[in-house]
Amino acid sequence: MRRLLYGLALAAALTAALSSCKPKVTAQSKGIRFDTLCVDTTALLSDSGGVAHCALHLNLIFLRGKEYEGVNDSLLRSGLLAPEYLSLSDYKMTPAEAVDSFIDRYITDYREFYTTVYAEEGNDTTATISYSVDASLRDGRSGITNYVTHVVSDLGAGSTDYTQVLNIDITNDRVLRLEHVFLDGYEQELGDIIAERLCKQLNVSSLDALRSAGYFVQCDPYATANFEMADRAIRFIYIKGEIADRDKGEVVVSVPYSAVRRLLRK
Fold it and tell me: Is 0.85 topped by the overall pTM?
Protein backbone atom coordinates (compact mmCIF):
# COMPACT_ATOMS: atom_id res chain seq x y z
CA MET A 1 0.00 0.00 0.00
CA ARG A 2 2.71 2.49 0.95
CA ARG A 3 4.64 1.83 -2.26
CA LEU A 4 1.45 2.21 -4.28
CA LEU A 5 0.63 5.49 -2.53
CA TYR A 6 4.09 6.84 -3.28
CA GLY A 7 4.11 5.56 -6.83
CA LEU A 8 0.75 7.05 -7.73
CA ALA A 9 1.59 10.39 -6.16
CA LEU A 10 4.93 10.60 -7.93
CA ALA A 11 3.53 9.57 -11.29
CA ALA A 12 0.77 12.17 -11.06
CA ALA A 13 3.19 14.88 -10.00
CA LEU A 14 5.64 14.19 -12.80
CA THR A 15 2.86 14.07 -15.37
CA ALA A 16 1.80 17.59 -14.34
CA ALA A 17 5.36 18.79 -13.80
CA LEU A 18 5.66 21.10 -16.77
CA SER A 19 2.45 22.99 -16.16
CA SER A 20 1.49 22.97 -12.47
CA CYS A 21 4.16 25.26 -11.00
CA LYS A 22 5.21 28.80 -11.69
CA PRO A 23 8.64 29.48 -10.16
CA LYS A 24 9.85 33.06 -10.29
CA VAL A 25 11.93 33.76 -13.40
CA THR A 26 13.24 37.29 -13.83
CA ALA A 27 16.28 36.36 -15.95
CA GLN A 28 16.18 38.06 -19.33
CA SER A 29 18.68 35.85 -21.22
CA LYS A 30 17.78 36.27 -24.86
CA GLY A 31 16.70 33.18 -26.74
CA ILE A 32 16.61 30.94 -23.66
CA ARG A 33 13.38 29.26 -22.61
CA PHE A 34 12.72 27.53 -19.33
CA ASP A 35 10.72 24.54 -18.13
CA THR A 36 9.46 24.03 -14.60
CA LEU A 37 9.44 20.70 -12.82
CA CYS A 38 7.30 20.44 -9.71
CA VAL A 39 6.81 17.37 -7.53
CA ASP A 40 4.85 17.09 -4.30
CA THR A 41 4.77 13.63 -2.77
CA THR A 42 4.32 11.98 0.62
CA ALA A 43 5.47 8.52 1.66
CA LEU A 44 4.39 6.79 4.86
CA LEU A 45 7.12 5.32 7.01
CA SER A 46 5.19 2.09 7.44
CA ASP A 47 1.85 0.51 6.58
CA SER A 48 1.73 -1.20 9.97
CA GLY A 49 0.35 1.78 11.88
CA GLY A 50 1.29 5.33 12.78
CA VAL A 51 1.22 8.47 10.70
CA ALA A 52 4.96 9.16 10.46
CA HIS A 53 5.82 10.18 6.93
CA CYS A 54 8.23 11.93 4.61
CA ALA A 55 6.95 14.90 2.58
CA LEU A 56 8.86 16.24 -0.41
CA HIS A 57 8.23 19.44 -2.36
CA LEU A 58 10.51 20.21 -5.30
CA ASN A 59 9.75 23.23 -7.46
CA LEU A 60 12.62 23.45 -9.93
CA ILE A 61 13.58 25.20 -13.16
CA PHE A 62 15.57 23.85 -16.08
CA LEU A 63 16.68 25.27 -19.41
CA ARG A 64 14.73 24.02 -22.39
CA GLY A 65 16.47 22.59 -25.42
CA LYS A 66 19.04 19.96 -26.32
CA GLU A 67 21.81 22.58 -26.42
CA TYR A 68 21.34 23.16 -22.67
CA GLU A 69 21.50 19.53 -21.57
CA GLY A 70 25.03 20.13 -20.26
CA VAL A 71 23.90 23.08 -18.14
CA ASN A 72 21.01 21.10 -16.67
CA ASP A 73 23.30 18.18 -15.91
CA SER A 74 25.74 20.53 -14.16
CA LEU A 75 22.92 21.95 -12.05
CA LEU A 76 21.79 18.52 -10.94
CA ARG A 77 25.33 17.51 -9.95
CA SER A 78 26.27 20.74 -8.18
CA GLY A 79 24.36 20.41 -4.94
CA LEU A 80 20.97 21.59 -6.21
CA LEU A 81 19.38 18.79 -4.17
CA ALA A 82 20.66 17.39 -0.88
CA PRO A 83 21.88 14.81 -0.13
CA GLU A 84 23.93 14.94 -3.34
CA TYR A 85 22.94 11.50 -4.62
CA LEU A 86 23.09 12.70 -8.22
CA SER A 87 26.77 13.65 -8.02
CA LEU A 88 27.72 10.05 -7.20
CA SER A 89 27.22 8.90 -10.79
CA ASP A 90 28.17 10.13 -14.26
CA TYR A 91 25.10 8.49 -15.79
CA LYS A 92 23.26 11.00 -17.97
CA MET A 93 19.61 11.58 -17.10
CA THR A 94 16.93 14.04 -18.09
CA PRO A 95 15.84 16.42 -15.31
CA ALA A 96 12.63 14.42 -14.79
CA GLU A 97 14.58 11.15 -14.57
CA ALA A 98 17.09 12.69 -12.17
CA VAL A 99 14.39 14.08 -9.88
CA ASP A 100 12.56 10.75 -9.93
CA SER A 101 15.81 8.98 -8.99
CA PHE A 102 16.50 11.47 -6.19
CA ILE A 103 13.04 11.06 -4.67
CA ASP A 104 13.21 7.27 -4.79
CA ARG A 105 16.60 7.26 -3.05
CA TYR A 106 15.53 9.89 -0.51
CA ILE A 107 12.44 7.92 0.53
CA THR A 108 14.38 4.64 0.63
CA ASP A 109 16.98 6.17 2.95
CA TYR A 110 14.24 7.77 5.05
CA ARG A 111 12.55 4.44 5.65
CA GLU A 112 15.78 2.65 6.42
CA PHE A 113 16.92 5.21 9.01
CA TYR A 114 13.66 6.33 10.61
CA THR A 115 12.24 2.83 10.98
CA THR A 116 14.89 2.37 13.69
CA VAL A 117 14.15 5.78 15.21
CA TYR A 118 10.45 4.97 15.36
CA ALA A 119 11.07 1.52 16.84
CA GLU A 120 13.14 3.08 19.64
CA GLU A 121 10.94 6.11 20.38
CA GLY A 122 7.48 5.27 19.06
CA ASN A 123 7.01 8.95 18.28
CA ASP A 124 5.36 9.96 15.00
CA THR A 125 6.67 13.51 15.30
CA THR A 126 10.37 12.68 15.48
CA ALA A 127 9.97 10.18 12.63
CA THR A 128 8.17 12.67 10.35
CA ILE A 129 10.40 14.71 8.06
CA SER A 130 10.04 17.14 5.18
CA TYR A 131 12.24 18.65 2.49
CA SER A 132 11.21 21.60 0.32
CA VAL A 133 13.07 23.36 -2.49
CA ASP A 134 11.67 26.36 -4.39
CA ALA A 135 13.74 27.75 -7.25
CA SER A 136 13.89 31.12 -8.96
CA LEU A 137 16.10 32.60 -11.67
CA ARG A 138 17.48 36.11 -11.99
CA ASP A 139 20.12 37.87 -14.06
CA GLY A 140 23.60 38.13 -12.61
CA ARG A 141 26.83 39.51 -13.93
CA SER A 142 27.15 39.64 -17.70
CA GLY A 143 26.88 36.08 -19.05
CA ILE A 144 25.75 34.66 -15.71
CA THR A 145 22.29 33.52 -14.63
CA ASN A 146 21.73 33.13 -10.89
CA TYR A 147 19.81 29.99 -9.88
CA VAL A 148 18.43 30.74 -6.41
CA THR A 149 16.73 28.17 -4.19
CA HIS A 150 14.93 28.59 -0.89
CA VAL A 151 15.32 25.35 1.06
CA VAL A 152 13.37 24.26 4.13
CA SER A 153 14.38 21.00 5.79
CA ASP A 154 12.88 19.33 8.86
CA LEU A 155 14.49 16.07 9.93
CA GLY A 156 12.17 15.54 12.89
CA ALA A 157 13.89 17.81 15.40
CA GLY A 158 12.81 21.20 14.06
CA SER A 159 13.12 22.90 10.71
CA THR A 160 15.92 24.92 9.20
CA ASP A 161 15.77 27.12 6.13
CA TYR A 162 18.43 28.65 3.94
CA THR A 163 19.15 30.26 0.60
CA GLN A 164 21.40 28.54 -1.91
CA VAL A 165 22.71 30.11 -5.12
CA LEU A 166 24.24 28.42 -8.15
CA ASN A 167 25.80 30.64 -10.82
CA ILE A 168 25.17 29.33 -14.31
CA ASP A 169 27.78 30.07 -16.95
CA ILE A 170 25.62 29.19 -19.93
CA THR A 171 28.34 29.79 -22.53
CA ASN A 172 30.64 27.18 -20.97
CA ASP A 173 27.94 24.71 -19.86
CA ARG A 174 28.88 24.80 -16.20
CA VAL A 175 27.99 25.95 -12.72
CA LEU A 176 30.72 28.23 -11.42
CA ARG A 177 32.74 27.34 -8.36
CA LEU A 178 35.05 29.70 -6.49
CA GLU A 179 38.08 28.33 -8.32
CA HIS A 180 36.46 29.21 -11.65
CA VAL A 181 36.07 32.84 -10.56
CA PHE A 182 39.23 33.54 -8.56
CA LEU A 183 42.93 33.07 -9.25
CA ASP A 184 44.91 30.34 -7.49
CA GLY A 185 45.84 31.26 -3.92
CA TYR A 186 42.89 33.64 -3.46
CA GLU A 187 41.72 32.21 -0.14
CA GLN A 188 43.54 34.32 2.45
CA GLU A 189 43.16 37.69 0.74
CA LEU A 190 39.54 37.11 -0.17
CA GLY A 191 38.77 36.11 3.41
CA ASP A 192 40.36 39.36 4.62
CA ILE A 193 38.32 41.40 2.13
CA ILE A 194 35.10 39.69 3.22
CA ALA A 195 35.91 40.51 6.85
CA GLU A 196 36.53 44.15 5.93
CA ARG A 197 33.22 44.39 4.09
CA LEU A 198 31.33 42.78 6.96
CA CYS A 199 32.96 45.25 9.35
CA LYS A 200 31.60 48.08 7.20
CA GLN A 201 28.14 46.53 7.06
CA LEU A 202 28.04 46.18 10.86
CA ASN A 203 29.81 49.50 11.53
CA VAL A 204 32.67 47.96 13.48
CA SER A 205 36.34 48.78 13.07
CA SER A 206 38.36 45.55 13.13
CA LEU A 207 38.35 41.76 13.04
CA ASP A 208 38.58 41.71 16.84
CA ALA A 209 35.52 43.93 17.04
CA LEU A 210 33.78 41.69 14.50
CA ARG A 211 34.49 38.66 16.67
CA SER A 212 33.31 40.51 19.76
CA ALA A 213 30.05 41.05 17.87
CA GLY A 214 29.80 37.29 17.38
CA TYR A 215 31.08 36.72 13.82
CA PHE A 216 33.93 34.40 12.75
CA VAL A 217 34.53 33.60 16.42
CA GLN A 218 35.70 30.03 15.86
CA CYS A 219 37.32 30.34 12.46
CA ASP A 220 39.26 32.72 10.25
CA PRO A 221 37.20 34.68 7.71
CA TYR A 222 36.64 32.69 4.53
CA ALA A 223 34.67 32.75 1.30
CA THR A 224 31.69 30.44 1.36
CA ALA A 225 30.97 28.30 -1.70
CA ASN A 226 27.43 29.68 -1.49
CA PHE A 227 27.86 32.90 -3.45
CA GLU A 228 25.95 34.95 -6.00
CA MET A 229 27.60 36.79 -8.88
CA ALA A 230 25.18 39.70 -9.02
CA ASP A 231 25.41 42.63 -11.40
CA ARG A 232 27.69 44.89 -9.35
CA ALA A 233 28.96 42.70 -6.51
CA ILE A 234 29.57 39.17 -5.35
CA ARG A 235 27.24 38.25 -2.49
CA PHE A 236 28.60 35.65 -0.08
CA ILE A 237 25.68 33.95 1.67
CA TYR A 238 26.35 32.26 5.02
CA ILE A 239 23.51 30.13 6.35
CA LYS A 240 22.21 30.42 9.90
CA GLY A 241 24.83 29.30 12.40
CA GLU A 242 27.66 29.12 9.87
CA ILE A 243 29.74 32.11 10.99
CA ALA A 244 27.60 33.46 13.83
CA ASP A 245 24.94 32.31 16.28
CA ARG A 246 21.76 31.11 14.61
CA ASP A 247 19.75 33.95 16.11
CA LYS A 248 21.67 36.36 13.87
CA GLY A 249 20.04 34.68 10.90
CA GLU A 250 21.46 34.37 7.41
CA VAL A 251 24.51 36.58 6.90
CA VAL A 252 25.07 38.11 3.47
CA VAL A 253 28.32 39.94 2.73
CA SER A 254 28.33 42.03 -0.44
CA VAL A 255 31.75 42.56 -2.04
CA PRO A 256 31.98 44.94 -5.05
CA TYR A 257 33.90 43.57 -8.01
CA SER A 258 36.23 46.54 -7.73
CA ALA A 259 37.38 45.28 -4.31
CA VAL A 260 38.46 41.89 -5.69
CA ARG A 261 39.48 42.85 -9.22
CA ARG A 262 43.09 41.73 -8.71
CA LEU A 263 41.89 38.29 -7.59
CA LEU A 264 39.50 37.63 -10.48
CA ARG A 265 40.27 35.41 -13.41
CA LYS A 266 39.99 37.18 -16.73
Answer: yes
